[in-house]
Write a structure and sequence with these properties.
Elements: E1 35-36, H1 44-56, E2 61-68, E3 71-82, E4 87-88, E5 95-96, H2 100-114, H3 166-170, E6 182-185, E7 190-193, H4 201-207, H5 216-223, H6 240-254, H7 258-267, E8 276-277, E9 291-293, E10 299-301, H8 312-315, E11 317-319, H9 321-333, H10 343-350, E12 363-366, E13 369-373, E14 390-396, E15 402-407, E16 412-418, H11 425-440
Antiparallel strand pairs: 1-3, 2-3, 2-16, 3-4, 5-11, 6-7, 8-11, 9-10, 12-13, 13-14, 14-15, 15-16
């Protein structure tokens, strides 16, 4: 899963004329691209542009939502959830989110820190033969996971794993580089070769000659049995393995399976009630089909085996645009559902990371977000306050899906989900259409469509 970075963060004043009520559904596009959800007066030009990109880029479908000041003001589906059956994408259609999942896991970790069940500076891995961690210790001095490295071909224990902290994992500084080719870790001033993604269950299963698919804990044990690529905390390098481990941390600290705890204590209370970890090789109810767009312009069904549920914390969640709009509205405004994170925790979420790469920077990767952006005059601890911060997260599976959602300091947020992945669909709609509209639009509706999606 690669990061999908939004190319714009901004600050502008918005004036809002009143619009009394949502319009009825727009008729199906004459160009054979169905559009579902309530039509919004004044968005016709935007929708024509979206439909044109869908046609020109042969995109099966997309779903788009906008939030303003905690209100859902726009939520529509474009194109097909199932081309063969001619089932259109709905605003409630469920998509695989890929790395957006990391932002969910980050919120869960921050909630446990807020409840004093976990600490940022807490060591993650207990040394062999140390007392087993308790699920309710609340002690920052006690390591969390009692997962011993294992013996395998090519394994080499690296004692530095016992220095890895929760903060290192949250800030992509655990010590791993996923890329197989040489990577310039500029903060360390060295050239090093990545080890590949240790989150892969298939990789562990093959190396360990296992007949059954390994659990997440076994995958982690396999990964930590190899040398790190850099000293924990010294560098930044995007690696799924960091957040796969954080999911296991949540499970250990809460004494509840990761996905169940996240649903019951984080996502569903925020209003993301159809957020679930994906099912391997089958679709969830109301989930879209996924497609590979080929050079001949034809779309081919694909990709149900994109990822296994074991890596849910890093890339295995599914949700709709309504769910993600709820998450953004809750975090930014505390409505219509309360924010699970209190103001000091939100400040922690947007604070500049500790690792040297981002020293003095006002745009950085942290706590599950691809980019947190703060203008230089933001102030606050570590150069940022929640009120002045913008944040975004994206994800993709290279084929099958590409996604992004974003919340800005002016109160505008958006969600964009695709059921295909091409070189053009995200930039053509996100940067060329959504970006300019959000930067310049002054007539955001005043209604709230959240009440239409209980």
């Amino acid at each position: 899963m690669r990061m999908v970075r939004a190319a714009f963060f901004f600050a502008l004043a918005i004036s809002l004329p009143a619009i009394s009520a949502p319009a009825q559904n727009m008729p199906e596009s004459a160009s054979a691209v169905p559009i579902t959800g309530k039509a919004v007066p004044g968005f016709e030009e935007f929708e024509r542009a979206v439909v044109k990109v869908i046609q020109d880029d042969h995109i099966p479908g997309a779903a788009i939502a906008f939030v303003k000041d905690g209100r859902l003001v726009y939520a529509r589906g474009f194109g097909w959830a199932n081309e063969e059956a001619k089932q259109p994408i709905q605003p409630t259609s469920v998509f695989r989110l890929a790395s957006i999942s990391k932002s969910f896991t980050g919120i869960g970790i921050l909630k446990l820190i807020q409840e004093k069940k976990l600490c940022m500076e807490q060591k993650v891995f207990a040394r062999p033969n140390s007392p087993s961690p308790s699920t309710d210790s609340g002690s920052c001095s006690q390591p969390i996971l009692h997962l011993n490295p294992i013996k395998c071909s090519g394994c080499q224990l690296d004692q530095r794993i016992y220095d890895i902290t929760v903060q290192d994992l949250m800030q992509m500084s655990g010590g791993w580089i996923d890329k197989q080719q040489a990577v310039d870790v500029d903060a360390c001033g060295v050239m090093t070769h990545g080890s590949g993604d240790w989150s892969s269950p298939e990789r562990a299963q093959k190396a360990l000659h296992m007949r059954s698919v390994p659990t997440r804990a076994q995958v982690i044990q396999f990964g930590i049995s190899h040398r790190l690529n850099f000293t924990p905390g010294a560098c930044y390098s995007y690696s799924n393995f960091n957040f796969n481990i954080l999911g296991q941390v949540i499970q250990q600290v809460t004494g509840t399976p990761y996905a169940k705890w996240m649903e019951q204590n984080v996502l569903h209370p925020m209003g993301a009630t159809s957020a679930h970890v994906l099912l391997y090789d089958k679709l969830l109810p109301n989930e879209v089909n996924y497609y590979r767009v080929l050079p001949d312009g034809q779309n081919r069904s694909c990709c149900l085996d994109m990822l296994r549920p074991q890596i849910g914390p890093a890339g295995g969640w599914t949700a709709s645009i309504i769910d993600l709009a709820h998450v953004q509205a809750s975090l930014r405004n505390g409505i219509p559902q309360p924010n699970p994170l209190e103001p000091p925790t939100m400040t922690l979420m947007v604070s500049r990371p500790a690792n040297p790469k981002f020293a003095g920077k006002f745009a950085y990767w942290t706590d599950g977000w691809d980019t947190v952006w703060c203008p230089p005059e933001s102030g606050g601890p570590n150069g940022c306050t929640m009120q002045n911060a913008s944040w975004e997260k994206g994800g993709d599976f290279t084929i099958g899906t590409i996604t992004t959602y974003s919340s800005h300091s002016n109160g505008v947020g958006y969600v964009l989900l695709f059921n295909s992945h091409t070189a053009t669909n995200m930039p053509d709609i996100n940067r060329k259409i959504i970006g300019p509209m959000v930067r310049t639009r002054t007539d955001w509706p005043t209604w709230d469509l959240f009440k239409d999606y209980p």
